[in-house]
């Protein structure tokens, strides 16, 4: 089994890490680099809890051997905070609309919604629904999640109630 | 679960990739997006001894708009096709089918050519390639060949790429003038695999009568199934609704779907008929403006 030294930029900070070829990005982030917001649910690409941004695009970190994204910029839910360190726009909207129940799917939701709103800043309710369809929430909180997507998309960024 | 241990190879050029694949023989497995392969590895359904990563081969990236086709390099992610305005304009069938592939997070990594090689019988891209009469370019250390879509798919999850061969691009022909296309599918949930999907391609004559019509089905056989409806439809006005129903019935009678966990054979046949009728009409209406 081959081992490889790879370089990632995680939430803007350069990281050099030595990994076996089989190390999934999800495990690399959690175990090697301690970014534990990346939750591992199904480990076969279905649940979406491990979704992170790779060079700005949402991807399942459990479906990426870390060595295959050598040199890429990774953003986890930790990296979706506001510049002042407080909750980011999407995170605030999730709190405000009660889009968080048990919290397991939340990091995957946060990064998926952040990526979605960059591509589609003024979504319709239908588009908002589609945006969260790729992450499974088994607390059945989708109404609140859709509301949170629409809230975060408001021109004031959901700053006011 | 985690993948079983493997050795990792990162060729820096296409030539190096082909030499590596040739040297590794049956022990070498190509990884592009990995969105079909890695789930299989994580579940230990496959345990390749050697992974040859083609993600760093820039020469395999890019969508090329040729005179009569959209050529898709092996590293083009589904999401790139989805965003390409020229693809929407020149090859609306391809553009219409792509958003049905899984979810955004899969489309931003998974490659279109990889989906063809994976040859999932319920997948969108194989059916679209067959519907348009496209082809796949294969390269190996010994040379190259271009395989028409109808010969590329051999069975469920089986394509004709041999040991040591790499699919470097796929060519999706641009439909001829006065041709309309439509992709319709039913899945159990958004982003889920198709229970049945249908691509209709309809060409009208200058009098808006059907000159050629085909329906290509996903999910009802081991490979995409193309049924030529030209004989039933030829000379029919584009908006002859009853005739489209007859054609869809005829098309459906040629299919032999199987029962599985997701749907009975009877339900699949029903969907194939209904979707072909709707897709045929829709493609015919679109053809009047094409």
UniProtKB/TrEMBL annotation, chain B:
SUPFAM superfamilies, sorted: CO dehydrogenase flavoprotein C-terminal domain-like (SSF55447), FAD-binding/transporter-associated domain-like (SSF56176)
UniProt keyword Oxidoreductase, yes or no: yes
GO MF term set: FAD binding; oxidoreductase activity
Coiled coil ranges: none
Keyword Flavoprotein assigned: yes
Highest taxon in the source lineage: Bacteria
Keywords (A to Z) from UniProt: FAD, Flavoprotein, Oxidoreductase
Domain FAD-binding PCMH-type, first and last residues per copy: 1-177
Protein name: Carbon-monoxide dehydrogenase medium subunit
Classification lineage: Bacteria, Bacillati, Actinomycetota, Actinomycetes, Pseudonocardiales
